[in-house]
């Protein structure tokens, strides 16, 4: 499922005097079967961007293609069903959208909605709940009895139960404890192994380094970089300041060490890399 | 020293008999900033609800400034405690930021002529005075949480509890809320007891005292540097150290005990000399 944006512009209230332009001339590609991270400060257009992938928003001008589906300002609402079936979106804090009486019913909702029979939907829901690590003992409970971390997993299962080939996640690990965050990143990598195309929005550059193959940087509604994390995070430090983007924590600390005269041989992207570089630097003396 | 909160022999079960607390004890001095840390599901939010009397303990006592929490005292106890919750979108009622802060004051039956001054003061403390006439839903997450904090401050509580109040914020929002809390502590000193419930250790680091709980048990209790020196215990309880702490345990040679970022950088540059 190749995803391509060509000269996409988007404005709220297009054609009115209140028109507010959000995306400007966005051209990009999100590679099939890979994890693409979309980063940028709050208000840079990330959420607007991803809502074009399943047609929740349509471009004001330009074109989005997802595999052979083409989305433009003229696309009719009823044509979107096909797109929505192949693209699952988990919004920020998806647990706020749980609604059914039991965990299992909640997760069955999407496949039933897309025309699966009850028994097919049940099977799909059970598979999704197993994949996201929700224990069988919880399937009959009300989603509202669960802890925050468990609710997040149920909500993720709800996105996966209709077996979409593209999975979009807006800040999937936000608010979880370290263990929960680690498990979510693991889930992203498992989904990638299954051949899915994954798009995640994240403010945590450490998570981007951990899972992303490709990074799209948004700034004031424009794409200002699209490249691998290794290339991106080796850009000059002044660029990050201009874009108000963080380095991964290891890179941030390396910059502070540099200010104190401890210069590492390259910029580390992970904790272990940072420790190795410091150990090499200090023991050389 | 005056005690803000004393918890004795607390016992609490969920309906289905899952024991959350069994013989739990904790004393919090007035004016202390205490970070209550633990992983999701460790019981830390349940403890906050018990202190506020939102749920009732099966056994044991909770005393707030000398007054034991009971059905007939719960309203008075609650008046002394302000609470800020995790989701910034679930705590607004007013059409403007100022209205929102006014809501709590109206409930307290403050004369409306007194309100503007109190509202202005509270918004100034959190750095949101310029947003007085804005609609709350147009604010960023960090700004919303600061307004929620102003609404609480306007009521002049002796204790403020923040339950994962920064968990849903972006890094900028988180930094501004943390800076606001540091400001509050400086301004009110021993007049304000602050309890931050969190699993973010960079946040816990700012407190005077860190209490780690898991399965309703008190696991560690001490200053941030004492608690963060217990690397294995923290990991075993599903928690991480602040980033520099995680780095220090991977260094060779390693420093003795926990160093904060500034100290670790200094230690490394001395080592290099």
UniProtKB/TrEMBL annotation, chain A:
Record-given protein name: Energy-coupling factor transporter ATP-binding protein EcfA2
Functional note: ATP-binding (A) component of a common energy-coupling factor (ECF) ABC-transporter complex. Unlike classic ABC transporters this ECF transporter provides the energy necessary to transport a number of different substrates including 5-formyltetrahydrofolate, pantothenate and riboflavin. Expression of the complex plus FolT in E.coli allows 5-formyltetrahydrofolate uptake; 5-formyltetrahydrofolate is not taken up in the absence of FolT or the EcfA1A2T complex.
Major localization listed first in the record, in broad terms: membrane
Alphabetical list of InterPro entries matching this protein: AAA+_ATPase, ABC_transporter-like_ATP-bd, ABC_transporter-like_CS, ABC_transpr_CbiO/EcfA_su, ECF_ABC_transporter_ATP-bd, EcfA2, P-loop_NTPase
Localization (cell): Cell membrane
Highest taxon of source: Bacteria
Subunit structure as annotated in this protein's UniProt entry: Forms a stable energy-coupling factor (ECF) transporter complex probably composed of 2 membrane-embedded substrate-binding proteins (S component), 2 ATP-binding proteins (A component) and 2 transmembrane proteins (T component). This complex interacts with a number of substrate-specific components, including FolT, PanT and RibU for 5-formyltetrahydrofolate, pantothenate and riboflavin respectively. Forms a stable energy-coupling factor (ECF) transporter complex composed of 2 membrane-embedded substrate-binding proteins (S component), 2 ATP-binding proteins (A component) and 2 transmembrane proteins (T component).
CDD domains, per database record: ABC_cobalt_CbiO_domain1
UniProt keyword terms in alphabetical order: ATP-binding, Cell membrane, Membrane, Nucleotide-binding, Translocase, Transport
Keyword Mitochondrion: no
PANTHER family xrefs: ENERGY-COUPLING FACTOR TRANSPORTER ATP-BINDING PROTEIN ECFA2 (PTHR43553:SF27), HEAVY METAL TRANSPORTER (PTHR43553)
Species of provenance: Leuconostoc gelidum subsp. gelidum
Example GO molecular function: ATP binding
Family, per entry: Belongs to the ABC transporter superfamily. Energy-coupling factor EcfA family.
């Amino acid at each position: 499922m190749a995803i391509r944006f060509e000269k996409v512009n988007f404005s709220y209230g297009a054609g009115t005097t209140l028109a507010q332009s959000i995306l400007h001339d966005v051209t990009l590609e999100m590679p099939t079967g890979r994890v693409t991270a979309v980063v940028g400060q709050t208000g840079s257009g990330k959420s607007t961007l991803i809502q074009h992938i399943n047609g929740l928003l349509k471009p004001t001008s330009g074109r989005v293609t997802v595999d052979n589906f083409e989305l433009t300002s003229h696309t009719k609402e009823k044509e979107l069903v096909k797109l929505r079936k192949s693209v699952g979106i988990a919004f920020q804090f998806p647990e706020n959208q749980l609604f059914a009486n039991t965990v299992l019913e909640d997760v069955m909702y999407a496949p039933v909605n897309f025309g699966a029979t009850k028994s097919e939907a049940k099977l799909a829901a059970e598979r999704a709940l197993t994949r996201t690590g929700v224990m069988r003992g919880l399937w009959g409970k009300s989603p509202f009895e669960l802890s925050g971390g468990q609710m997040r997993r149920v909500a993720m299962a709800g996105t996966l139960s209709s077996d979409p080939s593209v999975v979009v996640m807006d800040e999937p690990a936000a608010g979880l404890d370290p263990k929960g965050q680690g498990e979510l990143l693991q889930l992203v990598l498992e989904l990638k192994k299954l051949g899915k195309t994954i798009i995640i929005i994240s403010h945590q550059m450490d998570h981007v380094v951990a899972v992303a193959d490709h990074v799209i940087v948004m700034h004031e509604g424009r794409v200002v970089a699209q490249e691998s994390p290794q290339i991106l995070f080796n850009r000059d430090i002044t660029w990050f300041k201009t874009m108000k983007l963080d380095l991964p924590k290891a890179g941030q600390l390396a910059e502070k060490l540099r200010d104190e005269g401890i210069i590492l041989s390259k910029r580390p992207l992970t904790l272990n890399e940072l420790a190795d570089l410091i150990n090499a630097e200090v023991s050389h003396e | 020293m005056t005690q803000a909160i004393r918890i004795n022999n607390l016992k609490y079960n969920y309906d289905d008999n899952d024991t959350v607390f069994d013989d739990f004890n904790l004393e919090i001095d007035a004016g202390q900033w205490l970070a209550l840390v633990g992983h999701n599901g460790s019981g830390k939010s349940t403890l906050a609800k018990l202190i506020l009397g939102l749920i009732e303990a099966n056994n044991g006592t909770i005393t707030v400034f000398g007054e034991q929490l009971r059905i007939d005292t719960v309203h008075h106890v609650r008046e002394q405690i302000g609470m800020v919750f995790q989701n910034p979108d679930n705590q607004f009622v007013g059409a403007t930021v100022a209205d929102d802060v006014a809501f709590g004051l109206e409930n307290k039956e403050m004369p409306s002529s007194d309100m503007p001054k109190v509202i202005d003061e509270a918004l100034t403390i959190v750095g949101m005075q310029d947003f007085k006439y804005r609609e709350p839903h147009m604010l960023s997450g960090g700004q919303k949480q600061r307004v929620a904090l102003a609404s609480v401050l306007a009521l002049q509580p002796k204790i403020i509890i923040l339950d994962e109040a920064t968990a849903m914020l972006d890094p900028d929002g988180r930094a501004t809320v943390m800076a606001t809390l540091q400001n509050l502590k400086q301004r009110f000193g021993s007049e304000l007891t602050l309890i931050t419930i969190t699993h973010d250790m960079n946040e816990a680091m700012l407190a005077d005292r860190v209490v780690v709980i898991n399965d309703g048990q008190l696991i560690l209790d001490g200053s941030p540097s004492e608690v963060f020196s217990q690397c294995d215990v923290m990991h075993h309880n599903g928690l991480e150290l602040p980033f520099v702490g995680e780095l220090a345990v991977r260094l060779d040679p390693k420093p003795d005990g926990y160093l904060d970022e500034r100290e670790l950088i200094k230690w490394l540059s001395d080592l290099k000399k």
